[in-house]
Amino acid sequence: MKTRKILFGIAVMTILHVHGAPFRNLGFDEAKTNDLIVAWPNQTGYGYVSNLLYGWEATSPNGNYISMGLDLYPPIDGSLLGPVSFLASITHSRGKGWPFLPEGKYELVISGFTSITQTGHVPSDAKYLTYRYTLGYFDVKLNGQLLQKLVPDMPIRTFANSSQYFDVSAFTGHEVQLEVVVGTSQTPTGEIRPAGGILDSIQFLPELPTTVHFVKMQQPRITREGLTLTWTAPPRTVFRVESAYTLTSPYWLSLGPISSSTEEYSFLDTRLVQGSADFVNFQQFYRLNVVSRTTGLNPTVESSATQAQ
C-alpha cells in the first residue's frame, strides 16, 4: 500500500502601508557646497542645482535650471553653465550686513520667472504652511492648486522681514507636489515683471502662532474727507493704527485705537485729503498692532501693513 503525502501550502500576504517620503531641505541648509563648478578664492561660485538646492528642482518657462550661485548677492546670470540662466543663489548672509538673516546656514535669493518644486508627504498633523521672506513675493501651489495667502504681503522691495501663511489642511497626510513660485508685479505701463526676493524656512505647522491674526486689508480709499482704511478681523479686537514715511522707520505715529463689535473695521486719516497740496507728494505706510482681544491671546507685533501714495 502506498502512502501518499499531502502537503499544505500556506500563503502569507503582507500588506504594506507605504507613505511618501518627507520633504527635504525646506530651510535650504542641506546644500552640498564642496563640489562647485566654478569657484573663487572667497568661497563663492557656481554649483549644480542638484547639490546646492538639494531635494528641489528649479524650472522656468524654458526648462529646468542646471546651475546656481553660492554666496552671490545679488545673483548673477549663470547661463554659462547651462542652456538656461538661473538668477538664484544659496546665500549665507549672516554678518555681511544684508537685509535678511537666515534661520540656519543658508537662504535662497531668487529672481526671474522661476519656481522650485519637490514631492513629499504632508505631515499628519500639519494644518498650515509658512515661510519667511523679504524684498519680493512668493506664491505656493500644492498639486498645481494655488493656495490663498492668509495675511497680506509686505510691500515689494522693502527691507522688512516677514512671514506668510497658507491653509494646507485639505492635503494633510497626503503625498503632494509642493511648488514655490516667484511672484510678479505690474509696472505703471502694464508690464508684468518677476518680483523675486529672499526666501527661507518653509515649514509645516499644526497650529498658527498666537501672534498671527487674520487681518484682511481692503484697498485704501482717498476722498475730500481723507484716507479711509478698512479691514476685516475677528470682532471685539482693539487695534492701534500707526503710520510712518517708510517701513524701516524706527518712529511710528500712533493714530489711536480702533475697535468694532463686528468683523468690519474702518479708520479715517484726515491728513491725506484728495486735492490738498500734500496729496501729490505724500507717501505714508500704515500698520495695525493688536492691543487686546477678547480671546485673551497675547498682543501681536505688526499684523499687517499697507501703503498709501
Quick structural overview:
This protein is mostly beta strands.
Please tell me about this protein's structure:
It is a single chain. It is globular and about 60 Å long. It is an all-beta fold and 309 residues long. Strands 1-2-5-6-7-16-9-12 form an 8-stranded mixed β-sheet. A 6-stranded antiparallel β-sheet has the order 4-3-8-13-10-11, with no helix packed on it. Strands 17, 18, 19 and 22 form a 4-stranded antiparallel β-sheet that branches. A hairpin with a 2-residue loop joins strand 18 and strand 19. The protein is 1% helix and 39% strand. It has 2 domains: 168 residues, Jelly Rolls; 93 residues, Immunoglobulins (Immunoglobulin-like).
Blueprint of the fold:
Layout: E1 38-39, E2 45-48, H1 49-52, E3 57-60, E4 63-64, E5 67-70, E6 88-91, E7 107-110, E8 115-121, E9 128-134, E10 138-142, E11 145-146, E12 162-167, E13 175-182, E14 184-186, E15 192-194, E16 198-205, E17 216-217, E18 221-223, E19 226-232, E20 237-244, E21 253-258, E22 264-269, E23 284-293, E24 304-308
